[in-house]
Design goal:
alpha/beta, four-stranded antiparallel β-sheet, 64% helix
């Protein structure tokens, strides 16, 4: 509904352009009118009457109308550009704003592909709809001019076909949209799986990935079958509106001729139906039925529906929408560093579905590291409950792994350091895949491989963090807690490590952000600010949290902005 309202408002602002479009389209309508009328007059008043000159003059008029109509068609394309290009410019502005200001990872795709799809499809729909309206008008006026009986034969099945198509347009469009969405989701997942086959094999995730892709394939199959069940309605509309009139004209030809319809008029009517109405209806059915749904899909992605984030104002107490047991569930969590101290955390509620990437931000002293210490079991809350995958925190040691700011590396081989949390031997392929995913591979190769012996004092702080991160990545614990664990890495290395943990099969990631770019990558962001703690997406918090906007700082340097 919102898209239709916006389209109506936009059309009202383009009144002059629409008038120009209608004026040039009249030339095409004139061509359509003369295509049947001139042929009928050439036959009746010319060749059948023995007047070849008159017949040729009428045919010449029809030919001249084709030339004039071609001029009109050429001008129509220019007017359509004036109508569509401003829409493209608005979409580009919206996409760039969302990409730059809201860190939307899909913005580049929206700018380079989806906006162009929207522009081209919208132009096609305008041309198809305009062509049908003016072509139908020219043909129907021509039929009436030749003989009202011809219009009485052709008009009822034409209106019935258009009405049938109009009735089935919405369900057809919904199913076409569902099919396109399922197809794109499958393609996106396949593109992600292809480059990660080695990691999938190394982590033993073949069954999970196969099941996930199987669900995508089955979803696309269901939508394809649903679309196929409705497709005959499109064919029926086209047959009823474009082919049945021809049959009726032929069947009723003796009756029409007995009532004064001339042979030329009958031939003109067949020309109107076969060369004008049927092709125009065919273009309308296929254009609106397919391109219209595609345009709807793209516009809904470029112009997300729903309330603004500021109206939603999500809070940390909002429950998880997932029906599964949360990976991390906090209820009324409270902690203070002593009986007389002010609480650092005030009745914090939070529920994270499995697989969530959460970034924790806030000024210094608001409890970011305290929260991770509580989740890791290093501290005990004064009040409230804390569960990991349904288990109380004290009993969930095997379900979490903490990587602190100061990484611990011990003597021995690199492999011994990396597999410290694994009770069984780790295949070298899995170890190398983990090192490559987190960003340790260059250091691993420089040291001489997994069997190389380490001197912790010879490693830089950043190198020690990479070792600790890879160790945690190889851990069987599904919940990873990164407490400024990438503070000694540059921004690119930090991003690579965080994305690796976020993509870890079955894993949930909680990051105490060192740079605000971590928050922009996360699924959810928790802003700790005493009693005003809020949780939401990056986009939502930009709209509803002044503190979060302040933490983001200058957008030009947001990727390097540090937090306390």
């Amino acid at each position: 509904m919102k898209l239709r309202q916006r389209a109506a408002r936009y059309a009202r602002t383009k009144g002059r352009v629409l008038v120009r479009l209608g004026a040039w389209s009249l030339l095409e309508a004139g061509q359509t009118f003369l295509a049947g009328y001139a042929l009928a007059r050439a036959l009746d008043a010319g060749f059948l009457a023995g007047d070849v000159r008159t017949g040729l003059l009428w045919l010449g008029a029809a030919g001249a109308a084709v030339v004039v109509g071609a001029v009109g068609t050429g001008r129509v394309y220019g007017v359509v550009a004036a109508l569509v290009e401003p829409v493209r410019d608005r979409l580009v502005t919206r996409v760039v704003r969302r990409g730059v200001r809201e860190a939307d990872p899909g913005a580049l795709s929206g700018l380079t592909q989806q906006v162009e799809i929207a522009r081209d499809t919208l132009a096609g729909l305008v041309l198809v709809s305009r062509s049908f309206l003016f072509t139908a008008a020219g043909a129907l006026i021509g039929l009436f001019s030749l003989d009202p009986l011809l219009l009485a034969v052709v008009l009822p099945p034409l209106l019935a076909g258009v009405a049938l198509f109009a009735v089935t347009l919405r369900p057809l469009a919904r199913r076409q949209e569902a099919f396109l969405t399922a197809d794109e989701a499958l393609a996106e997942d396949l593109n992600a799986v292809g480059p990660g086959l080695r990691d999938i094999t190394a982590t033993g995730a073949e069954a999970q990935v196969a099941e996930h892709l199987g669900r995508r394939v089955r979803a696309e199959l269901r939508t394809a079958r649903s679309l196929a069940r409705w497709s005959p309605a499109r064919v029926a509309a086209l047959t009823l509106g474009g082919e049945v009139p021809v049959i009726l004209l032929l069947v009723s030809a003796p009756w029409l001729l007995r009532r004064g319809v001339t042979p030329g008029a009958l031939l003109g009517a067949l020309t109107y139906v076969g060369q004008s109405l049927y092709p125009a209806l065919q273009n309308l059915v296929h254009g609106l039925g397919t391109s219209g749904a595609r345009l709807t899909v793209v516009l809904r992605r470029l112009i997300p529906p729903g309330k603004p984030a500021a109206e939603r104002a999500p809070r940390a107490s909002e429950p998880s929408p997932e029906p599964k047991t949360p990976a991390l569930a906090l209820s009324g969590l409270r902690f203070a560093y002593g009986p007389a101290s002010e609480p650092v955390l005030h009745g914090l509620d939070l529920a994270l579905p499995p697989g969530t990437h959460l970034a924790v931000v806030g000024p210094s002293g608001t409890g970011k590291s305290t929260l991770t210490a509580l989740v890791a079991g290093l501290l005990t809350p004064d009040a409230g409950t804390l569960h990991l995958h349904g288990h109380p925190a004290p009993d969930a040691t095997a379900l979490r792994t903490l990587i602190p700011q100061e990484a611990y590396v011990h003597g021995g081989t690199l492999a011994e350091n990396l597999t410290l949390h694994r009770p069984d031997p780790v295949p070298e392929g899995e170890l190398l895949a983990a090192a490559d995913a987190v960003g340790l591979a260059p250091l691993l190769n420089a040291l001489g491989g997994p069997a190389a012996r380490l001197d912790p004092s010879a490693l830089s702080a950043g190198e020690r963090q990479l070792v600790a991160l890879t160790r945690a990545y190889l851990s069987p614990a599904p919940l990873a807690l990164l407490d400024e664990a990438t503070c000694h890495l540059d921004a690119a290395a930090e991003e690579r490590a965080e994305r690796a943990f976020a993509a870890r099969p079955g894993g949930t990631l909680v990051v105490v952000a060192h740079r605000m770019s971590s928050a922009r990558r996360a699924d959810l962001v928790l802003v700790l600010d005493g009693a005003r703690t809020v949780c939401g997406t990056h986009v939502e918090l930009l709209a509803c949290s002044p503190l979060y906007r302040d933490l983001m700082g200058d957008w030009a340097g947001a990727s390097d902005t540090r937090v306390g």
